[in-house]
Specification:
4-stranded antiparallel sheet, OB fold (Dihydrolipoamide Acetyltransferase, E2P), alpha+beta, single chain, 13 helices
Length: 504
């Protein structure tokens, strides 16, 4: 009896998921407990495993949104595997004289690629093709691939240009007949006059550049019409663009601009003024809603200070090699900031509190959230009980969580909770910012880049590595005295790291 597999419950507040990837194709045989697909919610990514072994029948495609409990697929036990009937050939002539029909399916072109689009057929239905001859060009979201004939015979195209197919879908078939003379076809294909095609007759691909090639040509100021493409159908490849040079080295910039304007006008300027519409991911939509909600529902204010990073930098320089040799992890700035925040949060508990209706909840522990920029958007995993951890434990936890975030493998518990957040815009070069509170928390610390600046010390102007720090806080429960005092305490601890060890 066939088994219907439905979207499992993946979290208390999650009502729908998106199918981000199918590991198996329609009609594939799957083993029990084998991972068959990946689901993505607005908080995390989940894997779905087959509950029985059998033949897989997909009910939803990649990118489809399915509610919790919605039907994902059906697995037919091995004994009930249905016979897949090949599509009928369009040409009765081929069917009548064919000795064997070779069906060609979309090949696997990459581990994470689930579908491709047919960009160009080099042959037409009814044409004779030779084994290993390039018959079509297919494109994925990452690269372009050539499709070669799997037999010598008469081609029957089953999917036209522009059609999007899943990996494993039927794309064409080749009828091998007794009348086909393989040797004569090979000899014919090798004749120079047959493969030397004038540029004007190579089809739509002639003088058309792939996206990467078009960008390179635009940077060089070279028109695509002046470049001879070596790709399928005369298409200009990335290598062609890299090797392309201006025909005249003394061509003025003005001449190039006029040529580009004229060419763009003739083509409707589609290449320069194109637009792309892309659906927001669940994670991006959730982040957007939460950030707008925080701005609208909190009395958010930001206060600033500066930290002389020289003492920490000298300490790191002195002990980083021995630290890494002993603990097998690097000594970064994040452990210093996390430890300093935990001490300052104990001194000013309102910074570590949150509002629940008409009550304020004070936490006697420090669950520090670390903002991480992941491929699918911003995520904030939590370092639990950070006040009890050593420098080595904090560094290892930061590396572990950041790695899982970038691999989209964070679980919901690892991102839930948190009493205070640290975000480091300095790694992207930010000099100063006003970070938005990570609700329901009441404060967030923003780190920034370190710049050599002139400062006054003991009546003299000296150059020191300075970092600006920013504390955004909810003014409903945190007063100015507390927020400013928190940053002053943080500054003291960071500019004299020995305080962290002595707890003073």
């Amino acid at each position: 009896m066939s088994l219907e597999m439905k979207v499992p419950s993946v979290g208390e507040s999650i009502s729908e998921v998106i199918v981000s990837q199918w590991m198996k194709n329609e009609g594939d045989f799957v083993e029990m407990d084998e991972v068959i697909c990946e689901l993505e919610s607005d908080k995390a990514t989940f894997e779905v495993s087959a509950e029985i072994e059998g033949v897989l029948r997909l009910k939803v495609g990649v990118g489809d949104t399915v509610e919790i409990g919605g039907l994902l697929c059906v697995i037919e036990p091995k004994g009930e595997k249905k016979e897949v009937i090949a599509p009928e050939l369009k040409s009765e002539k081929v069917v009548g004289g064919a000795v064997k029909i070779i069906q060609m399916h979309v090949p696997t072109v990459g581990e994470s690629i689930n579908e491709v689009t047919i960009s160009n057929w080099n042959k037409s239905s009814g044409d004779l093709v030779v084994l290993d001859e390039v018959i079509a060009e297919i494109e994925s979201d990452k690269a372009t691939f050539e499709l070669t004939a799997e037999a010598t015979g008469e081609l029957e195209i089953l999917a036209s240009d522009g059609t999007t197919l899943l990996i494993g879908d039927l794309i064409c078939q080749i009828a091998v007949t007794d009348e086909v003379d393989s040797k004569s076809l090979v000899d014919k294909a090798a004749e120079p006059e047959e493969i030397s095609v004038p540029l004007a007759s190579q089809g739509y691909a002639a003088s058309h550049a792939a996206p990467a090639a078009a960008k390179i040509l635009a940077e060089k100021g070279i028109l695509a019409t002046s470049v001879q493409g070596s790709g399928v159908g005369g298409r200009i490849t990335k290598e062609d663009a890299l090797n392309a040079k201006l025909q005249k080295e003394d061509v003025s910039l003005k001449d190039i601009e006029e040529s580009v304007i004229t060419d763009s006008t003739k083509k409707g300027d589609d290449s320069d003024r194109s637009e792309k519409r892309q659906k927001m991911s669940p994670l991006r939509k959730t982040v957007a809603k939460r950030l707008v909600s925080v701005k609208n529902e909190t009395a958010m204010l930001t206060t600033f200070n500066e930290v002389n990073m020289q003492p920490i930098m000298e300490l790191r320089k002195k002990y980083k090699e021995s630290f890494k040799a002993k603990y097998e992890v690097g000594l970064g700035f994040m452990s210093f900031f996390t430890k300093a925040c935990c001490v300052a949060l104990k001194d000013w508990p309102a910074i570590n509190a949150k509002i629940d209706d008409d009550e304020v909840i004070y936490s006697n522990f420090c669950d520090v959230s670390i903002a991480v920029s992941a491929p699918k958007g911003l995520v904030v995993p939590v370092i639990r009980n950070a006040e009890t951890l050593s420098f080595e434990q904090i560094e290892k936890e930061v590396v572990r969580l950041a790695t899982k975030a970038r691999e989209n493998k964070l679980s919901i518990p690892e991102m839930s909770g948190g009493t205070f957040t640290i975000t480091n815009g300095g790694i992207f070069g930010s000099m100063l910012s006003t970070p938005i509170i990570n609700a329901p928390q009441s404060a967030i610390l923003g780190m920034h880049n370190i710049v050599q600046r002139p400062v006054v010390k003991d009546g003299e102007i000296v150059i020191r590595p300075i970092m600006y720090v920013a504390l955004s806080y909810d003014h409903r429960i945190i007063d100015g005295r507390e927020s400013v005092s928190f940053l002053v305490r943080l500054k003291e601890l960071l500019e004299d790291p020995s305080r962290l060890l002595l707890g003073v």
